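Colleagues,

Please find the record for the two-part complex below.
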Amino acid sequence: MSSNPSQLRLGIAGLGTVGIGVIKIVEDNADLLSARTGQKITIAAVSARDRGRDRGVDLGAYAWHDNAVDLAGDDNVDLVVELMGGSDGPAYALAKACLAAGKPFVTANKALIATHGKELAQLAEGKKAALRFEAAVAGGIPIIKALTEGLSANNISGLHGILNGTCNYILTRMEREGLPFDEVLADAQRIGYAEADPTFDIDGIDTAHKTAILAAIAFGMAPDIDNLPTEGIRNIVSVDIDYARELGYRIKLLGVARQQDDGVEVRVHPAMVPLSSPLANVMDATNAVTVSGDHVGPTGYEGAGAGQGPTASAVVGDIVDVARGVWYPPFGVPAAELGSPAHLGSEAHIGTYYIRLKVADVPGVMADITQTLAREKVSIDSMLQRGHADDGGVYIVLTTHETTEEAANAALNHFNALECVLESPAMLRIEAA
Amino acid sequence: MSSNPSQLRLGIAGLGTVGIGVIKIVEDNADLLSARTGQKITIAAVSARDRGRDRGVDLGAYAWHDNAVDLAGDDNVDLVVELMGGSDGPAYALAKACLAAGKPFVTANKALIATHGKELAQLAEGKKAALRFEAAVAGGIPIIKALTEGLSANNISGLHGILNGTCNYILTRMEREGLPFDEVLADAQRIGYAEADPTFDIDGIDTAHKTAILAAIAFGMAPDIDNLPTEGIRNIVSVDIDYARELGYRIKLLGVARQQDDGVEVRVHPAMVPLSSPLANVMDATNAVTVSGDHVGPTGYEGAGAGQGPTASAVVGDIVDVARGVWYPPFGVPAAELGSPAHLGSEAHIGTYYIRLKVADVPGVMADITQTLAREKVSIDSMLQRGHADDGGVYIVLTTHETTEEAANAALNHFNALECVLESPAMLRIEAA
């Protein structure tokens, strides 16, 4: 608003794709950002491992720090943007140094927040320094803002998220092209949609970090990555994708957090989602989150979950908030009030299940199976048997009515012991996401 | 954070469904709101037309003002919530009185903001008073927050919204049940989904108010309801819904705002939306908005667009922001910098079109039609002719390649003059929303 606006000078730690994306937005959209904040947002200093690398942007005007932690003490830096990654090491050290000095800290680092979120929030609150991490979850989708601010009137009853673009891309191509997991993964690695070491994505760890952060905000508890039951998509096979479709579902890797009577259930696993639900139609690398609140009802958010532009958009959105003087406790309530996570064990989960068995095509098989289910009080919703596998076995696929995961697992164990069952049964949770 | 938190005392003008919803949230979720704001949020005073009416909540503890405008001067009221509606009259008077006194003002009143938004923003900025209106657009969906804050790093290239639940409900039932517009409208009125006088909804006026507000924020221009081309859904007939489906589309009433080379195009009209696009699958009374930014790419938001809980959720979300001390210019940039809306005339719109003609089943008809289109340089993308109408006429349905609306309208006028054309042709824009 002033003709001689004040400045907000950034220090950027980490000059990978997202760091360069932030520089691009700050440069390209400088006038817009100035109009929206009443301040001139500039870059004062940067830090990265390799000073010599050509990153396609001119860094000559910015001070260089070999040690990222030095950005915390650089008096020409008003706000530090951390884009190095990693739950510990320099990212953690930099966060602590900034917040202890009362310097605003904006990060895209989900591992850092999922691991040290409560401690960092306490540091930030002590100095009323901003600690913001919109880019840590679901890239460009302003979902942390929706939870901490837009839906702040509500007790959240539950949320479901497709939070990892790599997994959703792999599942989408497996379904569309009828290809096996390994082949799609290899191709995703070739074209840069999956890392050389894909563990972090496909085993659900990345989704778990993000889910822990969303659950912490939604339910006012400290993020707790250590007690979060996590399964990835490695064991998803094409036959289940096909049966899912036939039954009116699609398989998605979900982060789930839900208020139950006796605690909050937080978990990450592949699930069968009804084709009519919003998350079922989120394809390729897109991310999406559905959130239900006690007054607002169900709401949904969708967009790019990764990539230079979307992630940098979220980082700069946080910077705009800081420039506007927005401040409140980083998790929406004071860190001291964040409850201990009362994660429920997954055995207590009550839900419906998809079970696929490969059985010998002999008399009495169906009786064995239905008796096993009856013994565990698992009641059948639908059942289908069709065609023959190459080895002469037959697939039997069934969905259950609501039951505890404990009972479903017990039935699975009994199936494993049956002579007519030819291989370890497959089970997937069904989620109305 | 303090054990003796300060208070934020509300004055509520208007005790209809939403007003009562706000009281319920403030009472039911008092502890939550206190944890999230560090303040005790209470209700100090209320105002409504009829003091005697039973509203199902106990208003005995609150001061009563017969004249809503008196809330502005009530020293026991820290923030005024306006839920009376109407672009002028008491709502406008109350807004001006509050903001002139530097008192925060939260409203769900789309007509007020679409009509007087710039003037009120200037008043608010002069006193650094909060003027917030999340509930004015798309009910419980925090779309204004997404535009002003979450996506603030971006130049917005375009947005599309399903912003009126009544229209979407009517279109959904017309398609699902094959019923004509009048019959579904009458039924919607019976069950309370449409007003006795439905004009405001079905003629697109409500959508236009909301679209004007979203466009103002997205493109940094004053809201301008007077120059916003607006068409409603009165003329949508079942035969077009059926053809849309056959061609892979669904008809939705859209609010559209899009950056073009020479200005911003803002318009409200029914459109055919590809079934693969996110908005096509938004059914019943649900609202949804898609927004594209230069760095974030496409994003989407969905939820309940009206009703007690969702609308009150948005109002209380704004109250929480005010309690947290969040302040920035109401439209995201200073009101003085809001450009004059450079709405483009709809003739300049370049797009693809659906055209349906009822023609006599005589030789030479197809030649007449294709020659007319060729003369206006409108090129055909697809064409179908099937069956006979009851009166012996035949429907010819075509979609065009990209063309100006001017050319499409010219072709339509020529069709009207052809002897073989039996009734006024139908035309719908196709939008990749």
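Chain B touches chain A through 65 residues (CB under 8 Å).

Comments are welcome before we finalize the supplementary table.
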